[in-house]
Amino acid sequence: MESGECCSSSTSPEKRKQRQNQRDNKPYKGIRMRKWGKWVAEIREPNKRSRIWLGSYSSPVAAARAYDTAVFNLRGPSARLNFPEFITEEDDLRGGGSGADLSAASIRKKATEVGARIDALETAHHHAPAESNWGRASVKPDLNEYPGPESSDD
Questions:
Q1: Which fold has domain 25-126?
Q2: 51: Cβ contacts below 8 Å, ≥ 6 apart
Q3: Which residue of 23, 31, 75, 148 could cross-link 63, Cys pair, CB 3.0 to 4.6 Å?
Q4: Is the dihedral of CA 85, 102, 109, 74 positive or negative?
Q5: Domain boundaries, the chain
Q6: Chain-centre distance of CA 144, in angstroms?
Q7: Smallest Cα–Cα separation from 117: which of 91, 82, 150, 78?
Q8: Crossing angle of helices 104-137/60-75, nearest 10°?
Q9: 37 — alpha (psi -120 to 50), left (phi > 0) or beta?
Q10: Tens-of-pLDDT digits for all 154 residues of the chain?
Q11: Distance CA 51, CA 40 (A)
């Protein structure tokens, strides 16, 4: 009896730790990270075993936004979203109708458009400071250089 209690108590914390690690590696719903660092998004079609591929992205935010767009179009306003504050009327492909008449292709197209737009913004945001500093650095004179005859103040 004691050995059964010992084993059950030792496996429970291990399972909890595994679940915690999985949650730490998946910051948002509907996405996962590939071995090489890209983030991918996909969603299961309602009442089917098939999945809708939503794309591969550089940032987890872009993949999560693509997922949000797809799940919103499949399930409507009751969908559980990663970023509910960013869903707009233009993201709604249903046009007031039910989600059943939407094709997987139209959902994939809209979700990949949103994800690509966010991915481009995220990438530009990370590279913008380096580019702006580069432009300023080219204006600065080299203080170690001896002045030539064309730079005299005569």
A1: GCC-box Binding Domain (3.30.730)
A2: 42, 43, 44, 45
A3: 31
A4: positive
A5: 25-126
A6: 46
A7: 91
A8: 150
A9: left
A10: 444 445 444 556 776 665 555 556 678 999 999 999 899 999 998 889 899 999 999 999 999 999 999 999 998 888 999 999 988 766 666 555 444 457 899 999 999 999 999 999 988 876 655 444 444 445 566 667 776 666 555 5
A11: 13
What residue type is 10 in one-letter code? S
- The one-letter amino acid code at 32 reads R
- In whole angstroms, what is the distance from residue 142 CA to residue 154 CA? 21
Give the pair of three-digit tokens for residue 14.
Answer: 């291990």
pTM assigned to the model: 0.62
Question: Per 3-state DSSP, what percentage of the chain is helix, strand, and coil (rounded to 5)?
Answer: 60, 10, 30
